[in-house]
Amino acid sequence: MDLPVDEWKSYILQKWSLLPKSVQVTICTAETLSDIFLHSSSLLQPEDEMVLKKLSRGYLIEKDPDAPLFYKEEGNKKFQGKDYMGATVLYSKGVSHSAPNTEDISLCYANRSAALFHLGQYEACLKDISRAQMHGYPERLQPKLMLRRAECLVNLGRLEEASQIISDLESNFAAKQTRAASQFQILQRTLCHLKMKVQEKEHLTETFPAALTNAFEDMNLREENKQISSASSSVSLCTDTLKGRYLIATKDILPGELLVKEEAFVSVLNPGELPPLRYGLESKWDTRVVIGDLYCHRCLKHTLATVPCDGCSYAKYCSQECMQQAWDLYHSTECSLGGAHKKGATEEELERFCRR
């Protein structure tokens, strides 16, 4: 979604130019972010709030109950054209606009799991299958979803789990042969194919590593620095009148060795350059892929399978855990503010101007 950053920035620049020199100096020489915020917020007037509300009016982030069907159908078009990445993002947009525990969200999650399967993202696919079922995926469609789960498990080398699902499906098919003949035959063929695949895999000697690489969040410092918090003992802090503060190596550093690991004090996703918005239905529901569709809004981790906030269509996360942490820390406050809080990135601009 495009943001009216330039308009707000121009407005703030104009206000800055009208401030008395003494006030500008006070803000520029403030020692902490809290001081800058306190000085700046005390200058805000009711008319500033009106400007912000006016700019935000066209950037609503409430969930639209009509949007999930639109995004699901657009995603289906991409899927049929074998553009599985595009389909994944569109299904994610449908998920973001869906209310929890509804057929809409369960279908969008299930469809996204199919796209992720074709992208070879089997772990993400399994998570989406579980999410679809958690939100009430229709009983009549469950066999298709379970077959996909079994096939993911086969591809991941988890043959025992896959065999159990196949056995359960066989029992299910035997008990419920009333489904449409053509659909039943397709499911039976897929099931037979899966059984053969499991048997082939069982005769292979290859092993499947649990993980080829450790995720960044699982990496730890080899030895923590006693003088510098969150830094490795392999570095030392130096100060220079021209360069300011910087780190230097104090010993040989191994390839891939972690040197600094700390939580960001503040972070923001740069919206980047957006493609033009085409008119028509897309003027109401945006089908463009933006940075916010591909990264977690809390930890900034790249993710194809986002988990949305339950209350708005804007905030997206890499997991249920990140979503809950964001809600507990700050999003419970900003969620109801609508488009106004989306100009948070301009606070960085304001600070930069105040530092001049």
What this model shows, in words?
The structure is a single chain. The chain has 356 residues and is mainly α. The chain has four domains: 5-52, no CATH class; 71-202, Tetratricopeptide repeat domain (Serine Threonine Protein Phosphatase 5, Tetratricopeptide repeat, Alpha Horseshoe); 220-260, no CATH class; 281-335, no CATH class. The protein is 50% helix and 4% strand. It contains 13 helices and four strands. It has helices at residues 5-18, 21-28, 33-41, 46-56, 67-80, 84-97, 103-118, 122-134, 142-155, 159-175, 181-202, 320-334, 345-355; strands at 235-240, 244-249, 307-308, 316-317. The chain has a two-stranded antiparallel sheet. A hairpin with a 3-residue loop joins strand 1 (235-240) and strand 2. Helix 9 runs parallel beside helix 11 (181-202). Residues 205-216 and 343-356 have low confidence and may be disordered.
CATH second-level architecture of the largest domain: Alpha Horseshoe
**How many independent structural domains?**
4
Helix content: 40-55%
Number of helices: 13
CATH fold topology of the largest domain: Serine Threonine Protein Phosphatase 5, Tetratricopeptide repeat
General form: flat
CATH class of the largest domain: Mainly Alpha
Total number of beta strands: 4
The N- and C-terminal alpha carbons lie at a distance of: 30 Å
Please state roughly what percent of the residues sit in beta strands, choosing from under 5%, 5-15%, 15-25%, 25-35%, 35-45% or over 45%. under 5%
Mean of residue pLDDT values: 81
Biggest sheet, open or closed, and with what strands and sense?
A: 2 strands, antiparallel
CATH superfamily of the largest domain: Tetratricopeptide repeat domain
GO molecular function: histone deacetylase binding; methyltransferase activity; zinc ion binding
Protein name: SET and MYND domain containing 4
GO biological process, one term: heart development
Organism: Phyllostomus discolor
